[in-house]
Amino acid sequence: MRRFKLIHGETIISATPDLIPVVDLTDYSNLTWVEIEERLRGTRLVVFPTGSVEQHGHHLGVGADWLQADAIARRVGEQCGALVLPTLCYGVSGHHKEFPGVLTITSDTYRRVIAEILESLARYGVEKVVFVNGHGGNTGAIVEAAKEARDRHGMLCAVTHWWDVLASESMFGHAAEEHAGYAETALTLASRPEAVRMDKAVVKETMQADAEIQLVRAGLARFRGGVVRIPLRTIDVTDVGSMTEAHPDEVQTTSDYSMITPGYAEELMGRVVEWLCAFIDRFEGFQVPPVERAYP
Questions:
Q1: Given 16, 93, 95, 106, which residue has the most CB atoms within 10 angstroms?
Q2: pLDDT tens, residue by residue, 88-135
Q3: Which helix (H) or strand (E) holds 264?
Q4: Contact (CB, 8 A) for 51 and 69
Q5: CB neighbours (10 Å) of residue 278?
């Protein structure tokens, strides 16, 4: 007998199993407009996965960012019943454009796309949006669009990144935020194994150009105890396309990914999903105190 998958894991047994398929009420794309209308009567929160198409070294497919965001969001929907929007695959990746395969749009275009999607959601009564963003280059534009949605529609948006969830953890001596590093490779492995070439895996230390101005990553450097922001292209700091996001004094090039196993990948994915489910549960009840003061 077949089952309908309903909100919060509740199920109904179909009396005609051969005629009625399973309906997943957490996947926005699979629902009819009538089902979406009904679904939004029971929840005012949606999950919005976003990513990019860009290089991730020699060992991860160019879709790594959106593949991770999509898989994380789908698992969040399955685990806690959240309504998950279609993934926005393309992002702001102009700083990576020297690597073949990168598909990018401008920050202003991206902001406008996000803002108009949020406006569409507000039209149907959505009050809260949790972004599962897989690409740091998107963050500024998402935040600006979220501010606009707050001003125009009273909407509350939360922008989450899996590397922020794991920021306090060490991945075998490496930070979670590394580009195509241990964590990102593991999450891609858990999301789509065929997008991983483990035999070609390497995370490259940040290339240097000056003895005193020490480059940490594309955009950040150290100088005599202070830090300075120097906007660079990704290709200025790596010729492989993967990055430690750290000075070589702290983290060196490594090609030993032997610890990134399918089991480890699933365990890491599970921790991210569990955190997001806990956050969504809390965020659903989150309210900002009303402001009495208003200006024209």
A1: 93
A2: 999 999 999 999 999 999 999 999 999 999 999 999 999 999 999 999
A3: helix 262-283
A4: yes
A5: 11
User: One-letter amino acid identity for 5?
Assistant: K
- Cβ-contact 8, 81 below 8 angstroms: yes
pTM of the model: 0.91
Q: In percent, how much of the chain has pLDDT > 70?
A: 91
Alpha-carbon distance 186 to 259, whole Å? 10
Q: Write out pLDDT tens, residues 46-69.
A: 999 999 999 999 999 999 999 999
C-alpha 169/C-alpha 274 separation (Å) is: 15
Chain CA centroid to CA 71, Å? 10
Helix pair angle (64-80, 182-191), 10° resolution: 60
What's the pLDDT at 290?
83
Mean pLDDT of the chain: 92
Q: How far apart are CA 278 and CA 80, in angstroms?
A: 9
Phi/psi of residue 37, nearest 5 degrees: -60, -45
**Which residue is associated with the tokens 């070609």?**
200
User: Which helix (DSSP H) or strand (DSSP E) does residue 226 occupy?
Assistant: strand 226-228
Cα-trace Rg, the chain: 21
Structural domains of the chain, ranges and CATH numbers in brackets: 43-281 (3.40.50.10310)
